[in-house]
Amino acid sequence: MHRVILFLSLIPLLAAIILRRFNGDRVLRRDGQELLTTPAEQTARKMLNAMGHENVELKQARSPWAILGSSSKSVVELPDYTRGKRHPGTVESHAHAALCVAVFLLSEREPQLAGKREWALRFGHVFPVFTVICVVFALVVGKLPALWGLSIIVGSLGLAACAQVLTLACELRAATLASVVLEKKRIFPRFSDEEFVVPAIRAQAWRAIVPGLLARLM
Which contiguous run of DSSP H or E holds residue 128? Predict the structure, then answer.
């Protein structure tokens, strides 16, 4: 039985990893580290102002793993783009900031769609971690065979991947919205910057298809 659980769980998990690698990581590896002339936060601010949200505050997320789209009606949370190997002026940072703003804008138009996506991302972050803790405890006290433990952990990752795959449409629509705003409102001073960032926004959306526990290792 544990082999069946393991096999069925690996299907959505491997599909999510392949889709992320091909549609997300490949694009960001190619262009993501190109430096633009302005910081990512400025791009987010310009997008909000252009869409009539001058009063919305940009706030640094408390956690580097903050859920995309977890912003409130008056605050958009952005990660610290100076942490680790990040740089606030890279194409990757600009694309992520633009996607955060677009998810905020989409949540105003379609709150149910954005709410389901936020739930799926939180589930993808929390459920596998909780499962690992429970399995480790059960293995320590000798109440669970090792193969069953492995199957349960992979099963939790597969379930989280299903939730994130099924709700990815929200972020893909947000990526389209972000691209339209950037192009119509002429957010960037140079057209070449826009050409780099627009495909990177969609790539950022695809990166969120993998459950949080596994995404931290990629």
Answer: helix 111-140
Question: 131 CB contacts (<8 Å, ≥6 apart)?
Answer: 152, 153, 155, 156
167: domain range? 2-215
Q: Is 57 helix (H, G, I), strand (E, B) or coil?
A: strand
Q: Which of the two residues, 134 and 189, has the higher pLDDT score?
A: 134
d(CA 101, CA 103): 5
Q: How many domains does the chain have?
A: 1
List pLDDT tens digits, range 110-126. 889 888 888 898 898 89
CA distances from 85 to 31, 92, 190, 191 (A): 15, 11, 25, 26
Q: 187 burial class (0-12, 13-18, 19+ CB within 10 angstroms)?
A: buried
